[in-house]
Amino acid sequence: MSLEKLKLSKRLTATMTELGYLAPKEIQSRCISRILGGQDVIAIAPEGAGKTTTYVLSTLMKLKFTTDEAPKFLILAPNEERIDEIVDRFHQLSKNKSLRIIGLRASGSMEEEIDALVDGKDIVVATPNRARAIYLKLALNLNRIQTLIIDDAEEIIKQGMQNPVRELAESCGKVQHLVFSTVEHQKLYDMIDVHLNENYALIEVDELENESVDTLDLFLYQAPNFTTKINLLNHLLQDKEVFQKVVVFVNSKLTAQKLASSLFSAEKQEIAILNPLFYDDFGYETVQDFTDNKRSRVLIIARENTNIVDLTYIPFIIQFELPNEKEEFLKHLLKNDQNEETVILTFSTDLELPMVRKIEQAVGKRMEILELPDDLLVYSPAMNKKKKAVKAEQEDSSRGGAFHQKKESNAKTFNYGGGEKAKMKMKKK
Fold it and tell me: What pLDDT, on the 0 to 100 scale, is given for residue 410?
């Protein structure tokens, strides 16, 4: 497919050609026509797939010359570095030195940014928090916004900026919404779903490296939270015939200590930590010491301050937490004659899925998704409310005298947020 098929202006087509783009990427060919047609779009694609160029080209195509001071496009990004990249991309593709665009940065002077907005801007790029702060000062006019763009939505969610996004989307009113993310999960829809038009398009681009790497077998469990991960690990470890020697990776030594204390064990020395943080925690100095002790079945390793370890003869490696850098995960991925029977199980929450995608990009293949066990206890915050209510009721009833249980008609009821339960089978969803 040639660039002409995108139906860009001659100037934009010429600029793309000068930059070395002879053909559009898949996400551009699938999204741009929909965006120009006014449709709401959620685009899911990995890093480097061309998401930024997609909405920059679309915005430049829709941008009309006007003397109106109020902005027409609001782009929300997770951090200042990303804001700079987006602004630079607009200048690179538009080649218009007088392009009315501004990046609102938390480290900048708010007074200067407000003055610049008063002078008139067409495109505003900002973090949700900064945009909301300036909007509340009545300096960011959202009445003329035509398109609201959320870039790196997964990172915005990870940083907990959903509420500012919702408030800004509500203030923009009826506009076109474009959401770009590397992953799709429920938190994404919780943030923006109420504002999307009913006929929105979900575009998914699944791009991997051309050549896959010969790795160990990779399986993925998707869990809603940390507590459910603990429940899942305890559930799997009940099968002692299968899980005879297991290495579990976490990120910090404090997490290693917390996890060790959360695992059920009827036998002494069954759960161990590599170089434990506290002297009274059972552990080893080397993986070899762990493999030599038949009483030890689980070794928890914190990536923090830990050099490369030899896991050649460990049949199960469980990535309980995803690292901050994919290279930390890739260290133990390659298959050889000594470890070809080793299996890697990865536990991932929604917020960790972007790292899963980066790892899959690096190895050129997807992890096989496993369904959660039928009888797994999936934790939800409502469970805590119920426990606290029961505990308070027990304390009141134990005091006697003036304390008494409430009448049934006055008693507060609690709704349980039961999680999904799925079968534990080695198959894709």
Answer: 41
